[in-house]
Structure formats: C-alpha cells, structure tokens
Design brief:
Blueprint (H helix, E strand, L loop, with lengths): L1 H7 L3 E9 L5 E10 L6 E11 L4 H8 L7 H25 L9 E12 L39 E5 L2 H8 L3 E3 L2 H6 L8 H9 L6 E6 L2 E7 L9 E7 L2 H10 L11 H5 L4 H7 L15 H4 L1 H13 L4 H23 L8 E5 L6 H10 L4 E4 L10 H14 L7 H4 L9 E3 L2
Parallel strand pairs: 1-4, 4-6, 7-10, 10-11
Antiparallel strand pairs: 1-2, 2-3, 4-5, 6-12, 7-8, 8-9
C-alpha cells in the first residue's frame, strides 16, 4: 500500500498503454509521460511501436471469437499466452527506447477482446450445442435471461484476454486492465471508452470536434463546442476495416491481409445497389449510444457480402471497393442522422488503420464536404498511437480514482472508475 500511495503522489508519471483491437493484427505499445489528471492533464508521447503477433496467433485468437470454435480450455490458455505477449511488447519497447522497467510507473492494458455482448443486442446466429432445460430448476430475479432457454437474449457481457497478473509479474510494473466491465455492470455498452479521453484532450470552446477511429470497427466521438462531459455523444458506426480486411484476405488466399493505401478499392467500382441493401441492417438505424463488434460484422458477415458481390459478377477490386464504400457510407449516414442537426462537426480527426486508406479518406472528404476531415496527427496526437495513449491515460485516471466512462457515450447509469489494479 505504501508503494501505491507513493505512486499516486508523483506529479509526473511514465505510463505504458497497451492495445490490441478487433483487427487482431498486433499489439500497440505507447510510452506516455503524464502530468496531472482529469481536466488538468498534460500528455507527451515518448515512444510508440506496433508489435505484430507471431504467425498463427491471429488465427488462434479469431477461432476463440466464434462460438463454434472457441473452446473454454483454449480461452483459458490463450488468456495467459496473450498476457506473455503483452509483457514481451513492454520489454521490447523499453529496450528500443533505451529505458528500463524502473523508468515506468504503470501499465494500462486493454487486452484482446474475444467476445462482446452489449445491452439490448439480440443474437440470432448462434445455436448453442448445449441442450437447456425448458423449466430451469434455478430461478434468478432481475434481468438474467441466460437460464430461460432463449438463446436470442443473452446476458450483457464482455471478455478481454491478456492476463494482467502475467503482465505485472513479467515486467515488474503495476498493471491496470479489464476496463470495460465496470461500465457494463452499470448498464453501459462497455464502449466506446476512449470518449472520456477524447474530451480531456480535444474539447474546444469554439468549435465542435469529431474523433473518428477506423479500426476493425469504426467509432465516433462528438465533442460539442464548449460542451461538458454530459454533452459528449459517441457510438460505433459499423464496420471499419474488418470486412475489407476479411475480403482482401479471402480474395488473395491470404497473400494480402488488407488493402494497402486503399489502392484496390480505388481501382474498383462500388456497387451501390448492394450497398443499399446492406444499409437496411438494423444496427445502422439504431440510435446512439450503441456498440458492435466481430459478433455482428465479422468474418461470417463479410463472406455473406462477398457472396452477394459474386452473385452480381463483380471483379475482385469491385468487391473491395463495395465493402470500402459501405464503411464510408455508414460513417457519413450516422453523422447525417444523429449528429449534424444538433452539433454539425467543424473538424473531424481520423485515427486508426483506416486513416492510411486513401480511398476512405477521399470519400469521407467528398461526403462530409462541410467538415474539415483530417488525420488526427494534425492535432499533435499520433493516429496510430491514439488508442494505446488512451489506455495509458485511462490507467492514470483509475489510479487517481477518477471515473473513466461517460454515460452519454456508453449508456451507463452512472460514471464508474474503470479497471482492476494488479501489483507486480
């Protein structure tokens, strides 16, 4: 406890943020110098690296994400194995930046999401192999519908792996992890959590700022001019790179894993009739706050879209262009339906892997002609490092006992201190 109090009382801390997203391409590690906390925070990025997973690991992770292949023994094992990989990422970035574990005060680890079931999320594609009793012998009061036998209504929950006890032990650094569950326990969607950090770093007294992260899933935070925490609006808009990556990998038989710079999409022509059909998906019409993931827009969905493209005899590049346009249009449609009337965005900062897709950026500029669409790098924050930086800051906020969620963004009933502290 003495060490905890000494850490808490330090004016300036060096924190490592760790992030692995729905694209499952590797671990982002950011070394961040943080002064203060809350609205008085000051942040400086010291070092950033992306460490790609060893061969075969992404496939093992993706197998865990699907109910038909995600065995409990594999999940148990991979929780520790991914923890080892996260710890190795810490050691590697310290070595590359000429630092040691003694220079680091804290680690904030997001972990790797395996499954995410937000509130009010019907699941229709999963048929449990376990036969459930029609009249369960155990009755629960409240909202737990898991025991009723109705597989279309699931207990809101989320699971991130990458055991923080392993990270803390192997690095010798206190670690805070498992940030999403506290928000979900309070009735929230468990996402987006970065909205609180977006407010700390980007709120502006004069203009309305949007923060768009295009990872596997695309999510948007809107910060109204001169707004408060309660005025922040945030949500997932739909698929980001996830479907594009899956289709590129399928078409190239694994030779390519993403559309580098958006060149394939630029060489193709989007099929607007197909996009019009896909836009009928209920998620795109659901009001915020809302969140989604691989469970809804993962490999199965991407392959259904690819099959539809093939039915219309589209070329490979046309298929990729069509999936790319779906990402862009769902972002633009979300802004038009839920944002523009009340808070037209003056500047939209884009981060995540999608910022490097020039076709996505070009189309966003075309569809959002009244908004300045820019890489978040223009603000002084690295587009690639932004989410890893966010979890370093979240860890610091948790250390100080500050709530890290925004109910206006996640739908939680109250603000909550996020994460669990693990001593080395």
């Amino acid at each position: 406890m003495k060490a905890f109090i000494e850490l808490l009382n330090k004016d300036k801390k060096c924190v490592i943020g760790l992030m692995s997203g729905t694209s499952v391409d590797g671990i982002d590690a950011a070394v961040v110098e943080i002064t203060g906390h809350g609205l008085e925070i000051e942040v400086e990025l010291i070092a950033f690296e992306t460490f790609h997973f060893p061969p075969g690991v992404p496939q093992r992770i993706l197998a865990l994400c699907h109910p038909d292949t995600g065995r409990v023994d594999d999940i148990c094992e991979m929780n520790f194995y991914i923890g080892h990989l996260f710890a190795e990422a810490v050691k590697c970035i310290l070595q590359k930046s000429g630092m040691s574990a003694n220079d680091i005060d804290l680690i904030g680890s997001h972990g790797q999401t395996i499954y995410h079931l937000p509130h009010q999320s019907p699941v229709t594609s999963y048929q449990s192999p376990v036969k459930r009793e029609e009249n369960p012998t155990i009755a629960f009061s409240g909202h737990w519908s898991l025991v009723t036998g109705n597989r279309n209504i699931k207990e809101p929950s989320t699971l991130q792996i990458g055991e923080p006890a392993v990270i803390a032990h192997e690095t010798g650094i206190p670690t805070i992890a498992d940030f999403r569950v506290a928000d979900m326990a309070a009735g929230g969607q468990g996402a987006p959590l970065v909205s609180y950090i977006d407010y700390l770093l980007f709120h502006n007294s004069v203009k309305t700022v949007g923060l768009l992260n295009i990872g596997g899933i695309a999510n948007l935070t809107v910060l109204p001019a001169n707004g408060t925490f309660d005025s922040v609006c945030a949500a997932d808009t739909g698929p980001g790179n996830m479907c594009i990556d899956a289709v590129v990998s399928e078409i190239t038989e694994g030779a390519e894993h993403y559309d580098k710079d958006g060149t394939r999409a630029a060489a193709g022509t989007a099929h607007q009739l197909l996009i019009g059909e896909w836009l009928k998906h209920p998620f795109f019409h659901q009001s915020p706050p809302k969140t989604t993931g691989r469970e809804m827009f993962g490999y199965t969905y991407a392959m259904e879209c690819l099959a539809a493209c093939h039915e219309h005899e589209l070329s490979d590049n046309d298929c990729i262009a069509t999936l790319t346009e779906l990402t862009v249009q769902t972002i633009a449609d979300y802004i038009a339906k839920f944002v523009t009337e009340q808070n037209p965005i003056d500047t939209l900062y884009v981060s995540g892997g999608g910022v490097h897709n020039q076709t996505i950026m070009h189309r966003l500029n075309e569809l959002l002609s009244d908004t300045s669409v820019e890489p978040v790098d223009n603000s002084g924050i690295s587009a690639d490092a932004k989410e890893a930086i966010a979890f370093a800051i979240l860890a610091n906020e948790t250390l100080h006992g500050n709530a890290g969620n925004l109910p206006s963004a996640t739908g939680a009933s109250v603000r909550k201190v996020l994460g669990k502290f693990v001593y080395p």
